[in-house]
Design goal:
Blueprint: H1 23-34, H2 39-46, H3 53-66, H4 73-87, H5 91-103, H6 108-122, H7 124-138
Helix pairs in contact: 1-3, 2-3, 4-5, 4-6, 5-7, 6-7
């Protein structure tokens, strides 16, 4: 039988490492800027839990996937809104991408039509969960 021992926790925190962004991560950050999103803010928000994960999101999601040339950003954002609504439980990401859609100039009427369309495929409960998020983003505070 093998005995596994673990080292006691360090008494001093390990200093943060500096991550040098790859060309793909830099491209991802540029794509995020086009969407009105802040890569550095995303990275900094995740860093206390995992120094590398935020960089991976920027690099892979935005640099490798969203940054591909075959679809324009407008089409990708509409697809993203549909998917996030359909799978549910992604309200924070849904809000981020609703704001990105607005930043790209996608009209409120088109976003609402998209959410309505998702009802036929994902069901009323999923869309009902997305609507309060859409209302927060798309309607003025006094409505």
């Amino acid at each position: 039988m093998t005995t596994v021992t673990t080292a006691p926790p360090a008494t001093t925190p390990t200093p943060a490492t500096t991550v040098t962004p790859s060309a793909t991560e830099q491209h991802g950050a540029a794509v995020m800027r086009e969407l009105g999103l802040d890569a550095e803010q995303l990275i900094a928000g995740i860093a206390p839990l995992d120094e590398r994960f935020g960089h991976s999101v920027v690099e892979y999601v935005f640099g490798e996937i969203v940054g591909r040339p075959e679809l324009d950003l407008r089409t990708r954002e509409l697809a993203t809104l549909a998917v996030l609504t359909a799978i549910g439980g992604c309200e924070a990401q849904l809000e981020t991408h609703l704001r990105a859609a607005v930043h790209l100039g996608i009209p409120r009427s088109e976003i609402v039509a998209l959410l309505t369309h998702v009802t036929a495929y994902a069901g009323i409960p999923r869309v009902m969960n997305a609507l309060p998020v859409a209302k927060r983003v798309l309607l003025p505070a006094d409505v």
